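Weekly structure sync, notes
Attendees: PL (lead), two postdocs, one rotation student
Agenda item 3: pending single-chain targets
PL asked that the sequence for the first pending target be pasted directly into the notes so everyone works from the same version. It is reproduced below exactly as submitted, 187 residues in total.
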Amino acid sequence: MTSITKQQYNELRQRLLSDQERLEQQLESHEGTNTNNSLRDSTGELSAADNHPADVGTEVFERGRDLAIQETLADELEQIRSALQRMDQGQYGTCAECGQEIPYERLEAIPYTAYCVEHSPRQDLSDNRPVEEDVITPPPSGAGVNRQREDGRFDDAGAWEAVEDYGTSTSPGMSTQPGQDDYKNNV
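Predicted structure, written out during the meeting:
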């Protein structure tokens, strides 16, 4: 055990036990979800053919989110159990990498940690880029020239001028002048 006081040690242990109980209850409540069933079984639909693709997409998103939440809770629960085991073995509060004492402030913030700040496994995003970026060819010469020429000079006031050359939703025989409606006059 490290140089943390007995009271601090007991507070951390109680917190870990409380968190363990909370996570076990949350995981139990999620056990009833249909994450192991097929999408058809979990939605109660006989077919997804009559559903809008966005509805199916929403269901897939919801299912993925539920799985990610369960995985995160299970991972945290495993780390808490490991911390409690380290407490029982008298190894709690020392870094698993270097053996140095983990400061109480860090244990208070993350009571299940097994590492000091210097040796904590990296939790950030990887700097590795997709292999596809190595084979992407540059755009042909002149691509985006118009966009680059107009870059930063387009505003709402010039929006109509920029799109009027492409036509309007009215037919060529209809007037585009405000207040005139040739369609009604021809009927």
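Discussion points:
- Helices lie at 6-30, 39-43, 53-89, 104-109, 132-135, 145-150, 159-163, 182-186.
- The radius of gyration is 31 Å.
Action: rotation student to compare against the earlier draft before next sync.
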